[in-house]
Design goal:
The chain is of the alpha/beta class. It folds into two domains: about 290 residues, Rossmann fold, CATH 3.40.50; about 200 residues, N-(1-d-carboxylethyl)-l-norvaline Dehydrogenase, domain 2, CATH 1.10.1040. The chain has an eight-stranded mixed β-sheet, sandwiched between helices. It has a three-stranded mixed β-sheet with strand order 4-3-9, sandwiched between helices. A hairpin with a 4-residue loop joins β3 and β4. α7 runs antiparallel to α8 and α17 crosses α21. It starts with about 30 loop residues before the first strand and ends in a 22-residue tail after the last helix. The structure holds D-mannonic acid. D-mannonic acid binds next to α10 and α14.
């Protein structure tokens, strides 16, 4: 179906006339009270979904900004913010028209961003800017050596200065840099306090957001840091909903089922969870009406999710690809990968408190979610930003096991799989890309220590950990070599995958990774 003659998604005009309204009636457009940074698929399947369910009065519209490419904003703006959410279970799909995002903007549109954050009606800023988007170092402080941070400090110095500029000031490019411009405008407008809600997979993401924002503000304008300290409530959250990148085949399914063209549709699993902790000084939607939970102590919930779900994802991503799998479901069907996940989960479970977490049920639910082969969650998508992800997903479990006198092999294998993946010539996107390249020029022990240092300096200095990771990485590297030699380890172990690492040339990227 070409779609040429099908209607486009558009909101109807208030009198019911005007552009084509291509689906179920759209509710009146809520005014903007939430500004979001990071207009990816996950925001559209998670926070936008919760807000739409909770906002029965139409009081909590979202204005969403992209971070890098403006494409998602352009596609969504062309549809008046409307898109279809496809909930894909193991048995079938359901389709829901989403209308909570009422404005979609290019993140480079700082004028609009500043105006919206400074509006007294705006009460909440939500973030899905990825782990790497905070530009924190291994010590969880703003990484002032990061060139993107340095460029933003220079740009913000000009932009926020009281002195008339001698030339047009440069604009910040990092999401935190842009957020700072918005917060400065809110201070200048005397628009009052608001909440900044991190929805990224970082341990204590409220503290991470606070550290990044205050670190940058201190470097640029200490009075702004002071204002933020007294007026911005950093709310922590644990967010969960597996949402792979939308494919052309997904868009075709929406088109043929719904009878309209939707270039911004999102496919997600039925499961969702949102646990929040913190204050909302200017109010918030009743997200609890949509199933979100508010807790005093977030840590056990976020660790359960980060160590079990995200930890298994990272382990499967590198080990699974080395063994020829493409997706999470494929990797989990490989008995060796499945056993490594269980080993990691046993370690993580020992590091988590017993009370109120029902880990056995959580583990079983994860196995069911991962096995949903109708959700094609590509391992290559998960592989990016390893240095920030592994810091959150592996280090605490490894430390906890070692403190108890055990090896921590399950968590160490996650790190070792990344090392073997790099040694096999793969280069997933990473904020520490230059340092990874430099580390890989080194040999043996020095190389491994340099790589470990990018995740956690303590690991790099622990001889036993270095030895353990080396022996695990060497084993996993052998499996990659088996693939190249045509004897896939996973196939030999009874899995049905086709090998992904298929070229003897180690510097060639994996298929589908560019
Ligand atoms: C994944 C997450 O890409 C990744 O690193 O582990 O995006 C994961 O799918 C979500 O956190 C699920 O809630």
């Amino acid at each position: 179906m070409s779609g040429e003659n099908l209607p486009r998604l558009k909101r109807a005009l208030p009198d019911g006339t005007g552009p084509v309204q291509a689906a179920a009636p759209v509710r009146p457009v809520p005014r903007v009270r939430i500004v979001h940074i990071g207009l990816g698929a996950f925001h559209r399947s998670h926070q936008a979904w919760y807000t739409q369910q909770a906002d029965t009065d139409g009081a909590w519209g979202i204005a969403a900004f992209t971070v890098r490419s403006p494409q998602a904003a352009q596609e969504l703006a062309a549809q008046d913010g409307l898109y279809t959410l496809v909930e894909r279970s193991a048995n079938g799909d359901t389709f829901e028209l989403m209308s909570q995002i009422v404005q979609a903007h290019d993140g480079a549109d700082l004028g609009t961003f500043r105006h919206l954050v400074a509006a007294p009606t705006t009460a909440v800023v939500t973030l899905t800017i990825t782990e790497a988007g905070y530009h924190l170092g291994a010590d969880n402080a703003l990484n002032a050596e990061d060139p993107a941070v340095q460029a933003d400090i220079a740009a913000l110095g000009g932009l926020l200065s009281d002195q008339p500029p001698s030339s047009a000031p440069a604009a910040p490019h990092t999401p935190i840099g842009r957020l700072l411009v918005g917060l400065a405008a809110r201070r200048d407008a005397d628009a009052g306090p608001l909440a900044v809600v991190s929805c990224d997979n970082l341990a204590d993401n409220a503290a991470a957001a606070r550290s990044a924002v205050l670190g940058l503000a201190e470097a640029v304008q200490p009075e702004l840091a002071q204002w933020i300290g007294g007026n911005v409530s950093f709310v922590g959250t644990s967010v969960d909903r597996i949402t792979p990148r939308t494919t052309p085949a997904d868009l075709a399914v929406v088109q043929s089922t719904c009878g309209y063209v939707d270039n911004a549709a999102v496919v997600t699993e039925p499961f969702r969870s949102w646990v929040l902790s913190g204050n909302f000084p200017a109010g918030r939607p009743r997200w609890e009406d949509a199933g979100a939970t508010f807790v005093e102590y977030l840590e056990p919930f976020e660790n359960r999710k980060l160590w079990l779900l995200n930890g298994a994802h990272s382990l499967l991503s590198y080990a699974g690809q080395l063994r020829g799998a493409h997706t999470v479901a494929e990797a989990l069907a490989d008995p060796a990968c499945a056993a490594w996940v269980e080993e990691l989960w046993d370690e993580a479970e020992r590091a988590l408190p017993d009370a109120g977490l029902d880990i056995p049920a959580y583990r079983q639910a994860l196995l069911d979610r991962f096995a949903n082969a109708r959700i094609a969650h590509h391992l290559a998508q998960i592989a990016s930003d390893a240095t920030t992800k592994l810091r959150t997903r592996a280090v605490a479990v490894l430390r906890s096991e070692r403190a108890a006198g055990r090896s921590g092999q399950g968590a160490a294998r996650m790190i070792a799989a990344w090392v073997a993946f790099l040694r096999a010539g793969q280069r997933p996107q990473d904020p520490a890309e230059a340092a990874i390249t430099a580390a890989l020029q080194l040999d043996g022990d020095e190389q491994l220590r340099a790589l470990l240092r990018l995740i956690d300096s303590g690991l790099a200095g622990d001889d036993d950990v270095v030895q353990l990771v080396e022996s695990l990485a060497t084993g996993l590297g052998g499996e990659a070599a088996d693939f190249r030699a045509g004897t896939p380890a996973a196939a030999a172990a009874g899995s049905r995958q086709t090998p992904l690492v298929e070229q003897p040339n180690a510097s060639r990227p994996l298929k589908g990774m560019q």
